[in-house]
Amino acid sequence: MEYCKIFSFLLLIITKMAAAATSEHIPTTLEGPFLPVTRSFDPSLRRGSDDLPMDHPRLRKNVTSNFPEQIALALSTPTSIWVSWVTGDAQIGLNVTPVDPTSVVSEVWYGKESGKYSEKRHGVSVIYNQLYPFEGLWNYTSGIIHHVRIDGLEPETKYYYKCGDSSLDAMSEELVFETLPLPGSGKYPRRIAFVGDLGLTSNSTTTIDHLIANDPSLILMVGDLTYANQYRTTGGKGASCYFCEFPDSPIRETYQPRWDGWGRFMEPLISRVPMMVIEGNHEIEPQAANITFLSYVTRFSVPSKESGSNSNLYYSFDAGGIHFIMLGAYVDYNQTGDQYAWLEKDLQNVDRKTTPWLVAAWHPPWYNSYSSHYQEFECMRLQMEALLYRHGVNIVFSGHVHAYERINRVYNYTLDPCGPVYITIGDGGNIEKVEVDHADDPGKCPSAGANKPEFGSVCHMNFSFGPAKGKFCWDRQPEWSAYRESSFGHGILEVVNSTYALWTWHRNQDIYKENSHGDQIYIVRQPELCSIGSKGTRALPSKLPSNVGATFMDPLLATLLCCLMFFLAWFERNK
Ligand SMILES: [Fe+2]
């Protein structure tokens, strides 16, 4: 009996030590592939929240006349940055009169000392119209949207700036930003935030407040920004069922003032931290004359020309030792198209000595085990996956699905130590609810006719190999799905060096607790194992890398062995 008590005591100590080791341990992808883990939605949380009203303090216009508002930064080249803002008033109604964009000049003053602006640059002023010539719908014409490129910037340096029109005595207050390290410097942006499907709800405010608290030096917005096309005030009627209210309207109206509200909501963050955007399906916003994406492409400056792209819908850029590729899922992605040709060229020009990390982002995920949007962008995957694999893309970020999921390294639905890590971060908190159903849950496998993409064809398939052979859905969480959890949130990537990067998913509820976060992992590049630029697909390794599990198992095993030896010695002495 006494032995039992002592053995139980030892077991308790071992368990506590193992628990301590586990809580301190941050796994690495070297330990993968990981067994699938699902954390369900916490029912004490709200699955969704309402849109913020247009008169909310964070959405209201707080400047007068021609003073700048909605100020935003975006990277252009490693030594230049875009500054964008809006002046004047947008109009919405049956009859709108576009203003002359040249009536307000686009001017930025900047320098390295507060209050002293050694440099001045001018840029362009534009407007756009969103027109719905159908009975009962409202048209929109924007305020003046300004874009100025400021150049000659030194790396890792604080710059003070003002924007506006000095001839109208309408310059902004002084703002400040810090430039990123140069490519080839062996340095990386301090903290990169990733957020998708943000919207403009009270959940969105929690996400952005949390993101601001996490102090990013760069932001990637992976599509579906404002959800202006779902705002209930369409036609000024607050229609809850759009096509019931407007049965003869061939196009759904989007409520463009939401974009202005979103610009104001984001300004405190993105007027001091550059934000790089890629479009989602909610940015398509079809209007008269088959025009699409007009608000998105007019409002945001992206380095398309700088990266050799002829479209604002796909581009690339460098930030320190990372080359980012931003792909368009709602524009031709076929191997015969312009985007693919641009991508091939862009990838060929990547120098991994200058930018060891290669990170890609586009809106709809290729690997997704939730019911929502399941296999929706298989056509895009089939066209582009091999090219990205051959060039050794390390991480892919997507949104579209309103939940979190991290995928084991994978290629063509097969675990592969050289495939990218895919992360779905479409949990920004928009008006649509958080996704809770998995395609492998009983009765939740979508029908083959569901999940049609808003662009491109349907390439749904039944699996020809693996546990789901012959089926459209798995009957359990797929082996490529490492971790999934239904919650709103955002993520932070901290690149440590040329091979290690720490990824942390921050759930919205973590904002209320000290040192609390969701999924966390070191993503590790293995250039020696995964040679870059080889042609064709790589064969699966015959066995997992020899260091799989070593980081976690070694201290735990040592602790267990030590305790067992101690117990045996004690037992020998006292028997
Ligand atoms: Fe989406």
TrEMBL record:
It catalyses: a phosphate monoester + H2O = an alcohol + phosphate. Gene3D superfamilies: 3.60.21.10, Purple acid phosphatase-like, N-terminal. It comes from Handroanthus impetiginosus. Belongs to the metallophosphoesterase superfamily. Purple acid phosphatase family. Keywords: Glycoprotein, Hydrolase, Membrane, Signal, Transmembrane, Transmembrane helix, Zinc. InterPro entries: Calcineurin-like_PHP, Metallo-depent_PP-like, MPP_PAP, PAPs-like, PAPs_C, PAPs_N, Purple_acid_Pase-like_N. Residues 1-20 form the signal peptide. It comes from the Eukaryota. It is an enzyme of class 3 (hydrolase). SUPFAM superfamilies: Metallo-dependent phosphatases (SSF56300), Purple acid phosphatase, N-terminal domain (SSF49363). This is Purple acid phosphatase.
